[in-house]
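In response to a reviewer's request, we include the raw inputs and outputs for one of the modeled complexes. The two entities were modeled together in a single run.
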Amino acid sequence: MIEIQRLKENRAEVLEGLKKRGINSEQDVDKILMFDQQWREAKTKLQETSANLNTISKEVGKLFSTGERDKAEGLKLQSIELKREEAVQKSRVEELQNELSSAIMSLPNIPRPEVPSGKDANDNELVFESGSSPTSESVPKAHWDLAKEYQLIDFELGVKVTGAGFPFYRGKGAKLQRALISFFLEEASQAGYEEFSSPLMVNEESGVGTGQLPDKEGMMYHVGGDDLYLIPTAEVPLTNMYRNTLLPNDDFSIRITGHTPCFRREAGSYGKDVRGLNRLHQFEKVEIVRIEKPENVESALNEMIDHVKSLLEKLGLQYRILKLCAGDTGFAASITYDFEVYSAGQDKWLEVSSVSRFDTFQSNRLKLRYKDQNNKSKLCHTLNGSALALPRIVAALLENNQTPKGIKIPEALVPYTGFEMIN
RNA sequence: GGAGAAUUGGCAGAGUGGUCGAUUGCGGUAGUCUUGAAAACUAUUGUACCGAGAGGUACCGGGGGUUCGAAUCCCUCAUUCUCCGCCA
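The model returned the following structure tokens for the whole complex.
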């Protein structure tokens, strides 16, 4: 949620920023400013009425205790009238408040100045590339064929038991999953992130806090009977631990990590994008989250990017980093870097991580603040990134490391798998 | 799942219809004393919002209600504890 103060003071800059996303919000912004103005006026008026009412009520109490019943009864009538007035004003204030907050909630975050403008994935900017594609005499196979050949993943079984996008991993496939999770968590711990194991369902407030709700495109699974949501990413529980929190000083740098399954409805996906492991309804991911004061955000973001880089390098994967253009940047983010690995069997780049900063967009919704040097409360900044999401890493490992003798496990992973080859 | 009890400021814990945003203790902060520290003493110490300011409004687990007036009465939901039942 954009800070209202920012809208008021820098209307032009905000509009300019949102324009980069390809949306013209002039009318929305002006509506918000108008609602805000009206809300303030209504609120001030209401408070005056309440103050009057409080004064009279106290007076009535005093009169009763001194036995002046007649006077008290008179005042009582007066206050009944005022109370009616107060009720009207109160509902007006609430109405305006709702209008205001739903209008402001519907605005996405403002892209940072360094974010390129553009509409979709075609306008993303390549900022880094590393490694080279594996050379092989034969045509590399796609991971869904390899998974079948080595009995690592059973997609049909998943369809039978649950539905498309819910595969079973078996044997060395399952062990590889477990190894990757341990490897990623261990690396995150080494980098100073505290490990958490979190709930996999969250309540509505948490969904709103990190920006998944009000629901955009049916991203989350909703458990109707208990009104809970299955998490689409560990970002939601990990960040919401700090909802409604006031950190006592400005001496903090909060780093947390956690592994969770992630559940995504992925409504509207189709075709070759969803083949094999490319897009699943349930997948495993290790997430890193940081909560920082504004001065430290820049360096925190760089550290996170370096962390993800090091993971990919240790796994020996060819990868590239894209700075997303404004139009392709998520609703809540102010800048996002996507990491993609090259997958030889499909001759395709697969997104395996997104590292984003949110500035105060999430913390404003979360009411996550800290006390600065002058003892003033200020909004924290939040960041998060995948480190990493498993399925496409598995896809790339299978496709890139295939040999006539089997699939070679990267050296860094062997201590976690306990085997060097899948064959 | 059933029965009972509870939920008050950073913590402990008073307060059962009016002057209570809330007694008190601990803790925190500042000061006095001290070479310094401790102790003692004194003062101060919640959050958010509206207002140019003076000041005001809201908040005693959440929501709703009764009343001129609610921490206090009623309804409802949540959570915690105790007992019973069931169970990985």
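As requested, we also summarize the result in words. The longest helix of chain A spans residues 26-65. Residues 68 and 133 of chain A are 94 Å apart (CA to CA).
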